[in-house]
Amino acid sequence: MRTLRRARALLLSATALTPACGAHLSAQSTRPGDYALPTRTTGPGRPAIAVVVRQGDARGAVAVAVTTQGIAPDRGAVVGVALAALVEARLTERGILDATVLGGWDGWRMRALVGSATETAKAIDAIRASMLTPVALDDPAAAAVVRKVGALARRPLADPALADVARCTGEAYAGDPRLPTMTELEAWRRAAHGLGRVALATAGDSSIADATASTLAHAPAWPASTPIEPSPWPAIGSPASVYDASGEVPPGGARVVVTARTANPVRAVAAAAALGDARGPLASRLQALEAPARVRSVVATAHVDGGCVSVTMELAGRDLSSDGAARIATAAALARQEVGVEIDDTTATGDLGRLLATQAPDPRDAAERAAWWSLAGRRAGARDDQTRLALTVGVAASREAPDSMPLTNGEALRAAIDRATIAWHSQVVEARSRVERGQGEVWMLLASTCGTAPESSADAGVSAAVAVASAARAQEASGGEVRVEPFVAADGVGVLAHGASRANESPAAHARRLADVAARAFAADAIDSRDAARARTALLAHAGASGARTLGALAEALAAGRPSWVDATGTLFGLGSASDESIAARASALRGEPLRVAVLANADAAQAEAAARAVDRWVARRPNEARLCAPSPSLSAPRPGTYAADLPAGAPSEALVAVPLAAGDEAGRAAATWVAAMLEGTDGLLAHSLGAARAEAGGNALAREWSADVLGAPRAPALVIRVVSADGAIDAAVAQTRTLLDRLRQGAIHDEDRDRAAASIARRALASSLDPAARTIELWRGGSTSSPAPSIDTLRAFAGAALRDDALVIVAARPPRGTRR
After folding, report:
1. How far apart are CA 368 and CA 355, in angstroms?
2. What DSSP character marks residue 196?
């Protein structure tokens, strides 16, 4: 956690302090200062000044930034460090004692505090002289150069493969560490310390800027510098660089670095905040892998010809002891994908440099950032949104078997990365979408198509616990902007998310935001003990209610050993047996099952596609993996008979009368749905049979509540009738219900019964069509499955075959004696 917080802080320090920025004056370059703050001109042949006006600081500051890009590139940071040492020594000789001058891979920067206008003028004169005075063979600053370059030589690149990373970050590593001759140093100074490679800035009140501008204007003109050619970009599709990181990374571990060059420097720097977020998509997705990877640093730099962001992550040796190459490759391919996505989603705003400079707490930081951003520019000949990614992987040999690990085989690892990259670019989440323009919200359902199939009596409800925990975590993480609900059914387990757009949010961004919330919670984030406990508690409370207890007993009778095939929310026994570990294990299994997302977009098809892509990227995968539901065991036949169940004290008695149906018989299930519609309602067959009409006239009704529905599809379907009554009447109510079913079996289904069922089904269909949640679930299941209305002969034939008294499964549930009502 500390590392990732530090990574976020690096966004500011890297953009201002990393010596990797500059400006091109070559014919092919963009003009300098594309991202600079307000400037003051100082006359022809003199550098302009970036000005940060601020009050309240005890002293102001001046800063200089210089790019050495393209000057002796084989020497690495030696050029920048040597020139920084030269200038620092000369400033000290001229009485500027508190100046800080630091060199890096492609440049150097200097900053110093100044007070009065007189002090500022003295500092600017000293800076100009220190930079423009030629280097003599016996130059007094030579000792400082030798000392600083000698120290740099003790910080070589661990491997030449890391040179590209150093060019990106600008960090001070030695390439060729030889000490420069005075002749070489003078050539470097002459090439770098001229117009086009130098930027100055001030921070403080206007007197600081006035004194700087006046001093430069009255001094001689500056010479021109050597034109800067664009830095090389990695080739499209270039293979990963692999090197031996033994001694740099703990034994058996690996370090992966993704570098991303952007044509627009703002895109790289702005993306760094999200990439370094400990709760962001990159860190979360890496942590969800089979071999978790930790983000160690995120460094973003603004260059003269674009920007660069470098993301470094590490994998521990203990996680790579098995199938290490594939695990490293999976993390590397994921990180490369996520960096690209984050940069693509970043909006480049031209005032980022101004914001970074003006938000700096120290005037020296403000001036330094302003100078650096004065030199930043777009890459010539490239689209503003163009990005080029590169991958560098270091692997350390295992201490136990240094020669036996295949990870150090570069070709094998590159091949594994290629396979992992293909896997990450292949969509694994099935997507279904529909556009409903003008709706207030976007809706989406992400769920496993295996549902509760793997559950047994011992863990009935563990899938529901995953859905409830994931939804609660997502709801909490969204801050209320997105509504997330658990989706729990026998044929699917997941989360349903919906929400309105933010002000000025594009349709695609709106959809991605919702998709990130839902998919992250269900497909990536670990379910911790708090989430598991809350979910288990809520589901146990539900399972302990009177209706759920009765349904749980019925589920065991209809689907012996598989009660969650009937009641997907689980049973008291199954949920009481579920541990935090079993819930976490089920979450992991769900993520490896076939997943489907349904999206109701409110703008256009592109919005739905953006949501589907966003969901898919959260799902971990391995090359050539097969996502299959575990084979469902054969289900023993339902056990007809009457069963007893206990209810909480004070609860009314109730009974469930079930007619088992054949799994896979869609025509039979459709007919059962029509029969259920005939039975229920205030004017349905149950109402007349159980004496509701007599109760309204002042008589005694056999039941106070009744309903009918088809439950348990698709694996253990049944037509289920629920009756609630006083304890003394429950047996009579069940007997009357059985009598009614027997009459229907003998053909007592009339046209008015069918017409009443048709009206009820039409009302249900209308209500569902007006409910976006129901429409989303229907879309997830494949659209409307309504079949032609069955004829009365079809209904009579179904009743004659299915409503046999010897096939009924009945559960009678009562509270303890003495508490019944």
Report:
1. 13
2. T
Inter-helix orientation angle 206-218/117-132, to 10°? 40
Mean pLDDT of 116-130: 96
Q: Is residue 628 part of a domain?
A: no
**At residue 350, what are phi and psi to the nearest 5 degrees?**
-70, -15
Supply the CATH number for residue 73's domain. Answer: 3.30.830.10
Strands 492-499 and 442-448, bridge-based pairing: antiparallel
DSSP H helices in 242-307? 265-275, 281-287
For the chain, the domain total comes to 4
Section 374-395 average pLDDT: 90
Residues 487 and 448 placed together within one structural domain of the fold: yes
pLDDT at 699 (0 to 100): 57
Percent of the chain with pLDDT over 90: 70
DSSP 8-state symbol, 137: T
Pick from 140-149, 416-425, 607-616: least confident? 416-425
Q: Which tokens in the block code for residue 456? A: 């047994």
Nearest CA-CA partner of 498 in 442, 569, 552: 442
Closest CA to 598 of 585, 581, 579, 612: 612
Instruction: Fill in the amino acid letter for 13.
Output: S
Q: What is the rounded CA–CA span in Å between residue 35 and residue 796?
A: 79
Q: Which two tokens stand for residue 738?
A: 């059985």
Q: Which of 283, 256, 296 is nearest to 407 (CA)?
A: 256
Tokens (6 digits) for 483: 């509504």
Distances in whole angstroms, Cα of residue 336 to Cα of each of 330, 332, 407: 10, 6, 19
DSSP secondary structure string, 512-561? HHHHHHHHHHHHTS---HHHHHHHHHHHHHHHTSHHHHHHHHHHHHHSTT
Residue 627 lies in a domain: no
pLDDT tens across 504-545, in order? 899 999 999 999 999 999 999 989 899 999 999 999 999 999
Give how far Cα 190 sits from Cα of 132, 157, 275, 400, 551, Å: 8, 27, 39, 53, 87
Q: Residue 709 — φ and ψ, nearest 5°?
A: -160, 170
Strands (E), 551-703: 595-601, 641-646, 653-660
Burial of 411 (0-12, 13-18, 19+ CB in 10 A): exposed
* Mean pLDDT along residues 139-168: 92
Q: How far apart are the first and last CA of the chain?
A: 57
Q: pLDDT tens digits, residue range 223-262? A: 999 998 888 888 888 899 999 998 889 999 999 999 999 9
Asked if 436 and 415 sit in the same domain, the reply is: no
Question: Helix (H, G, I), strand (E, B), or coil: what is residue 375?
Answer: helix
Q: How far apart are CA 443 and CA 205, in angstroms?
A: 53
Identify whether residues 586 and 667 lie together within a single domain: no
Please answer whether residues 114 and 208 qualify as being in contact, where contact means their C-beta atoms are separated by less than 8 angstroms. Answer: yes
Cα–Cα dist 781/656, whole Å = 28
Residue range(s) defining the domain that contains residue 723 = 641-814
Question: Which of 559, 489, 546, 482 shows the shortest CA–CA distance to 514?
Answer: 482
Residues 6+ apart with CB under 8 A from 387: 260, 261, 262, 263, 267, 340, 343, 344
Q: Kindly state whether residue 362 falls inside one of the protein's structural domains.
A: no
Closest CA to 22 of 227, 215, 184: 227
Residues 6+ apart with CB under 8 A from 769: 775
In sequence order, what DSSP letters do the residues of 696-708 get, joined into one string?
HTTS--S-SEEEE
pTM confidence score: 0.79
Q: What is the pLDDT of residues 625-683, one digit of tens each?
A: 889 998 888 888 898 999 999 888 888 899 999 999 999 899 999 999 999 999 998 89
Element holding 615 (H helix, E strand): helix 605-617
Cα→Cα distances 88→46, 81, 83, 141, 510, Å: 22, 10, 9, 9, 51
Q: At what angle do helices 666-679 and 751-769 cross, to 10 degrees?
A: 100
